[in-house]
Amino acid sequence: RRGEMAKSTQLIHNDVFRAFATYAAIVLLKMMLMSLVTAYFRITRKAFVNPEDTASFGKGESAKKYLRTDPDVERARRGHLNDLENIVPFVGIGLLYALSGPELSTALLHFRIFTGARILHTFAYLIPLPQPGRGLSWAVGYAVTFSMAYSVLKAAWLL
Amino acid sequence: RRGEMAKSTQLIHNDVFRAFATYAAIVLLKMMLMSLVTAYFRITRKAFVNPEDTASFGKGESAKKYLRTDPDVERARRGHLNDLENIVPFVGIGLLYALSGPELSTALLHFRIFTGARILHTFAYLIPLPQPGRGLSWAVGYAVTFSMAYSVLKAAWLL
Amino acid sequence: RRGEMAKSTQLIHNDVFRAFATYAAIVLLKMMLMSLVTAYFRITRKAFVNPEDTASFGKGESAKKYLRTDPDVERARRGHLNDLENIVPFVGIGLLYALSGPELSTALLHFRIFTGARILHTFAYLIPLPQPGRGLSWAVGYAVTFSMAYSVLKAAWLL
Which residue ranges run through the membrane (chains A, B, C) (predicted)? Predict the structure, then answer.
């Protein structure tokens, strides 16, 4: 019983899985940081969406004027949503890919390019950089996830 | 072959993984319930976004007036999006954490505090409670996920 | 050491897990395709949200008029968000379900019905089909995920 438990937790000793765990944690933390970026802009730009969030600014009209949209807040929110749309499939497909037995060097290449591309994408979105900066960094991450999905489907069908 | 299959499905016999499966299922179900809350408000407030959803109210202008936004619907949708932004990283990082071999008691503490915080967050958002109720419940869940990510990165780098 | 690594990567040899990997990859790829649908409508309808995306249309007012919302773009974005709200719980709960040791035939039934329902949902949203086409396809996928969550909780509590 004890040995069985030890065995099943030892996925973390597998080199590819350990690499996946590292990069998946990094990109998920990066995605979570978008919440703080949005909160930062909401507070500094005084642009809120929930009436209860503006209660500290007083009552009635004096607080109501802070219930508004702000370009910087909306930009951070779009960056966050884009992360959800792209980092979530990376984590899901990447986990299946890590468990499908790829070469460590190939796997690391996928994980590192994706992580770099998404960090670049965030800077390109928030600064913002002129296009095609954001578009290219998005496309690179997208292509990496497709490449891993191809490997997963090949492994799942052919093995 | 049979034994091999049995072995690989026995992750569910690992106590930490079983605890993770329980709490991950609970918070994912809680997130899914937000769809029903939104649908409930759309129907009771008669506030829709897709023209085909208002066809049963008649044609032309009589149906068009139900294509509108409603504060309760928008509030439920924001709560749902906030769940996606926070519960998804919990499930991804929590899975890696559960596989990194933590103590059962420490893991249960993480899973239970997160689950409690997110259930509180939903009530704080929907009632709504005055701030900092929603803010604090969000921050507690966020901190738990960061704590698990720290454990994952430490385990992945040091093992 | 070598044998241990091999063992932990052999989850892909488990028939249920292999089936899950196949259908999870398919629905995640389907979700990712929504990005391309949105981009297609943004470009053909000339409806953008970021000022830097319209720079190629010239400067000032001539570019500013393309910073607008378009019904087709918004419809594709709603379909994408609905995928996030439903496919993400499927992947999370489905992974736990696949590891909880279900019968292969039962598991395949769940995975295939969900995948079919979500593909139908996308067509129902984009064409759009009259209701209750979209509603029913959504409800079928939702029910499948609940059914898997029930199995996960039963397995995690009773084992």
Answer: 20-41, 84-101
